[in-house]
Write a structure and sequence with these properties.
heterodimer; A: alpha/beta; Rossmann fold; seven-stranded mixed β-sheet; 27 helices; 10 strands; 57% helix; B: alpha+beta; SH3 type barrels; six-stranded antiparallel β-sheet; 2 helices; 16% helix
């Protein structure tokens, strides 16, 4: 853990202690993060607050007089907490969060166009009796829509300093930066605003009147676009079209890059084999390092594109609209509109999906989404499905105009998606029942996002994905490789060609012993030890199943392992001689892969995002049990239908 | 002037907020207030999603999407 806000006395990457600490408070969409990015540049540090699923961002602002620690407090409309997640913000400001000192001063970021609402937040912040500065954003948009605001008069009415900031042009940032130097000079609110909500309403009115505030007109273009995009019929049509384009882009644009990357890695592995040899070091480098980490790296183009598109849609304001459109359907699963984005991303990969749950306000909804996300048919399942469906349904089989293989794939996707919905529903009505936090969502005007902030936001997600590939995945890849490659059988494999030699090593490896040891467990599902060996390999990532089976059967027919696979029979036991990949076994395997949480990256990111091992442990348990039961049932049903 | 609940106001109407249901949990009341649902403010029902889905309200110069169950806590006055 590198969280600065943690038990570690000296976090290696956190913000140094002893510096002045300033907290940025503001509502979502107020431009707080943009100000934070401009103040701190790319040196922001993110981690989770202890014990909760809230991301903490802090960074260093370089001011004329030195450095100041800036903390980007999660966006909020209110400083009275309704959930443990919101309580963290309050505790942070109170200084009661272990390891997090009280901020020395507060900067309240207010959006000029929504001042009538956001002054309530300013009132709550000012009631905390700390040096306070107000930064007003969106002044350009405010003026363009006919609004009026006198900043010096606002400062006088509030009794604290006010800085106008227009993040896109950087206007006001330098003034803000200069003021960060001397928070001790900032005024503490001389006469704090009233706490009673009716008096607060009167206070807001008087401040607005004193500052000569004229509300901006509603954004006419946004209203007109929303008339279409949120239309009960056309809104749905556009939504489906946007989602279609979204996936088309992810899969078609990323695919060639992915292929190139795969070829590059293959070439690299060959180079290693040629120059380092097939010895221990060579095999370790080409199989464990390049093969293991490579299997994750090939997903990077897809994941990067996914994050880029989400950041773009979010920046434009379309994600809030999608959440509005999907809320009714998501409500049926016990989740809300915001969870939809996470579920959508999980189609590509559950890791970015789980990371995307950060926008969900309620922690119970968020954890339910995290636990259901691995059921969404991710792209790592695709190669497994392709292989197994190929064994189940001969290619070219058609029922009328419907291609049977395509239909089987579609059915697997539907099964995964529906299962995710059902499991969210069950979790929300059992272990994750209830929640006080209501679902509400601001519909900001459509805005052209800045390229820089879109890139920054997607890059920070990609970086997190890469860091994980570099640690957890690498670790599991090394362990698995060792299990598959040891003990070395140098004496036995003398004179064998390379495919037979590696197959021999594999069949007598520790992993194979493990496969045989667990054979009785999977015997009711029709799996033999070689399939179990594939499952052991797939513990790190699902698609490894394909390559492990490929390695096992490469010995039988090095030229065409998939043909060997189709003709495989049970080697021993009561079913000896019967075809191994019979319909019941293949169906059981497919169903197993629909449910089983065979992805260490997902487990790792669950741990990271929920801040505890409890939820990944629950996910592993419930998904494994369901996978086993469902695969067993699927086998029985298929047996009954086919005989 | 008659009282009704915001959840029951037709799309397109502009109404004045009279109160937040006193039966509502204090924290939820406070949150609705902080979102802008304060007695005396005007609120316009911009659009409603079909099948009793959420609705978009214009309150305090911004658009907010709120579910029916929560809009039902807001008591508004309608001109007869």
């Amino acid at each position: 853990m590198s969280a600065a806000c943690h038990d570690n006395p000296a976090p290696e990457r956190g913000v140094a202690t002893g510096l002045r600490r300033i907290a940025l408070i503001g509502s979502p969409n107020a431009g707080k993060t943009t100000i934070f990015n401009q103040l701190t540049g790319l040196r922001a540090h993110t981690a989770n607050y202890p014990g909760v699923t809230v991301t903490r961002s802090e960074g260093m602002a370089h001011t004329p007089a030195g450095r100041v620690a800036v903390e980007d407090v999660p966006g909020t409309y209110s400083l009275s907490a309704m959930s443990p997640d919101e309580q963290v913000v309050v505790d942070l400001l109170d200084g009661t969060l272990p390891g997090c000192p009280t901020p020395d001063a507060l900067v309240v970021v207010l959006d000029a166009t929504t001042l009538r609402r956001s002054l309530t937040l300013a009132a709550q912040a000012m009631a905390r009796h700390q040096p306070t500065l107000v930064a007003v954003t969106m002044l350009d948009e405010h003026a363009a829509r006919g609004g009026r605001l006198d900043l010096p008069a606002l400062a006088e009415a509030l009794g604290v300093g006010v800085v106008g900031v227009i993040p896109p042009s950087g206007e006001g940032i330098d003034e803000l930066r200069a003021r960060l130097d001397r928070p001790q000079d900032w005024a503490e609110p001389p006469f704090p605003p009233p706490a009673d909500s009716e008096e607060q309403t009167a206070w807001v009115r008087s401040v607005l009147a004193a500052a000569d505030y004229h509300a901006p007109r509603p954004d006419a273009a946004t209203r007109a676009v929303d008339d279409v995009l949120l239309h009960p019929l056309w809104g749905g049509v556009v939504f489906v079209a946007v989602m279609f384009a979204f996936f088309q882009t992810i899969f078609t644009v990323a695919a060639p890059v992915q292929d190139t990357l795969q070829r590059g890695l293959g070439w690299l592995a060959e180079q290693v084999a040629d120059h380092v040899g097939h010895g221990f070091v060579g095999a370790f480098l080409s199989e464990a390092v390049i093969g293991g980490v490579g299997s994750v790296l090939v997903f990077v183009p897809q994941v990067a594109l996914l994050f880029l598109l989400i950041a773009l849609l979010e920046g434009l304001g379309y994600m809030a609209r999608a959440a509005y459109l999907m809320d009714r359907i998501m409500a049926a699963t016990g989740l809300d509109g915001r969870a939809f984005v996470a579920m959508l991303s999980s189609f590509a990969c559950a890791v970015p999906g789980i990371m995307a749950t950060r926008t969900i306000g309620s922690s119970k909804t968020r954890i339910a989404t995290i636990l259901a996300a691995p059921l969404m048919p991710c792209s790592a399942r695709l190669p497994v499905y392709v292989l197994l469906v190929g064994l189940l349904v001969p290619s070219g089989t058609r029922w009328g105009p419907v291609q049977a293989q395509g239909l089987a794939m579609f059915a697997l996707y539907v099964l995964g998606g529906l299962s995710a919905m059902v499991s969210a529903r069950v979790l929300r009505s059992t272990v994750l029942r209830g929640e006080l936090v209501p679902f509400y969502l601001e519909m900001p005007p459509y805005r052209m996002p800045r390229l820089r902030s879109v890139l920054l936001s997607s890059w920070s997600s990609v970086r997190m994905f890469l860091r994980k590939a570099g640690t957890i995945i690498f670790g599991t890849a090394v362990v698995l490789w060792a299990l598959l490659a040891f003990p070395t059988r140098d004496a036995e494999t003398v004179g064998l060609d390379q495919a037979h030699a590696s197959a021999y090593v594999l069949e007598h490896s520790y992993a194979a012993q493990l496969g045989r040891a667990i054979e009785p467990v999977f015997e009711p599902l029709g799996f033999d030890w070689r399939i179990d060996l594939g499952l052991v390999g797939a513990v790190s990532a699902r698609e490894v199943f394909v390559s492990t089976l490929g390695q096992v059967w490469a010995a039988t027919d090095p030229e065409d392992p998939s043909a060997a696979l189709a003709e495989a029979t049970y080697l021993d036991g009561p079913r000896a001689g019967e075809p191994l990949f019979s319909a019941p076994t293949v169906v059981a395997l497919l169903v197993w892969f629909v449910y089983a949480l065979q992805c260490m990256s997902t487990v790792a990111v669950m741990r990271r995002e929920t801040g505890s091992w409890r939820w990944p442990a629950l996910a592993l348990t419930y998904l494994t049990l369901i996978a086993y039961a469902a695969a067993w049932l699927a086998r029985l049903i298929t047996l009954a239908v086919t005989t | 002037m008659a009282m009704t609940r915001l959840a029951d106001v037709r799309s397109g109407a502009v109404v004045r907020i009279e109160a937040i249901d006193p039966e509502v949990a204090p924290l939820l009341r406070l949150r609705l207030t902080h979102l802008g649902f304060r007695p005396g403010e005007q609120v316009a029902v911009v659009r409603r999603a079909p099948f009793s889905g959420p609705a978009v309200y214009r309150i305090c110069d911004y658009d907010l999407c709120l579910r029916q169950e929560h809009a039902a806590h807001v008591i508004v006055g309608v001109e007869q």
